[in-house]
């Protein structure tokens, strides 16, 4: 139950920060610069949170064992997704963006789970999950029908 509530909070936080940083991007006339500001603040926050936690810094051996793509591709995808959301919110609205965002997340999550990529637990795609995905996608279409964008 607590994990579900935390996930709902995280989803709400994403919508709020995306809206705030889209406004920052509009005021700065650059969604890319807004993403840079957001990631700088995020980096500072995570360093402070790490220092305040009981986490232990990894050893050099542990650091060297991390595949190269985990050091950079995740960050590139994160910056791309965040930067695009800051660009798109003023054009299509936060609700529409989040609906499409959810669509991309659901499809990607099902593929990643089915294939067990990135050490996530293998979660096979079942008929029930496919029907759930169709229901979510149908909801997204209904939320966006008659929209100009």
**What is the number of strand segments?**
0
Q: Please write the string of helix (H) and strand (E) elements.
A: HHHHHH
Mean pLDDT equals 90
Give the helix tally.
Answer: 6
Our measurement of the CA-to-CA distance between the termini, rounded to an integer number of angstroms, reads 37 Å
Radius of gyration, taken over Cα atoms and rounded to an integer in Å: 18 Å
Name the overall outline. Answer: globular
Task: List unreliable stretches of 5+ residues.
Answer: none
The structural class is mainly alpha
Query: In percent, how helical is the residue content?
Result: over 70%
Largest sheet: none
Please indicate the percent range of residues in DSSP E strands (runs of 2 or more).
under 5%
Can you give me a brief rundown of this structure?
The chain is mainly alpha-helical. The protein has helices spanning 2-28, 31-52, 60-64, 68-92, 94-115, 127-144. α1 packs across α2, α4 (68-92) packs antiparallel against α5 (94-115) and α5 packs antiparallel against α6.
What features would you describe in this structure?
80% of the residues lie in helices and 0% in strands. The mean pLDDT is 90. The longest helix has 27 residues. With 149 residues, the chain is mainly α. Helix 1 packs across helix 2, helix 1 crosses helix 4 and helix 5 runs antiparallel to helix 6.
Summary keywords:
149 residues, mainly alpha
SSE layout and pairing:
Blueprint: H1 2-28, H2 31-52, H3 60-64, H4 68-92, H5 94-115, H6 127-144
Helix pairs in contact: 1-2, 1-4, 2-4, 4-5, 5-6
């Amino acid at each position: 139950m607590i994990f579900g509530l935390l996930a709902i909070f995280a989803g709400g936080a994403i919508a709020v920060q995306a809206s705030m940083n889209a406004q920052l991007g509009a005021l700065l006339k650059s969604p890319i610069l807004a993403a840079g500001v957001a990631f700088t603040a995020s980096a500072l926050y995570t360093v402070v949170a790490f220092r305040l936690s009981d986490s232990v810094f990894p050893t050099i051996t542990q650091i060297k064992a991390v595949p190269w793509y985990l050091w950079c591709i995740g960050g590139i995808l994160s910056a791309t997704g965040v930067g695009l959301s800051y660009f798109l919110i003023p054009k299509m609205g936060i609700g529409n963006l989040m609906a499409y965002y959810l669509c991309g997340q659901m499809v990607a999550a099902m593929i990643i789970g089915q294939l067990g990529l990135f050490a996530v637990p293998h979660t096979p795609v079942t008929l029930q999950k496919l029907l759930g995905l169709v229901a979510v996608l149908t909801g997204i279409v209904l939320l966006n029908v008659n929209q100009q964008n």
